[in-house]
User: Fold Helicase from Rhizobium loti.
Amino acid sequence: MSHDLTLAQKAAWHLARTLMAPVILFQVDDEFGVLPADELDGADVEILFEYDPYSGGRSVH
Assistant:
């Protein structure tokens, strides 16, 4: 988890490109986290961005 959105966004894009799978950038309270999209499974988090290694990042809002 990170308190810096820019750092979390860079980590999310790097993870998506490394895994070649979609990842989700989410926020819980004042921290940001990154998980592969298929591992989120209904967690109570605020999803901010989705990063797909084939089509880039997009805001969920």
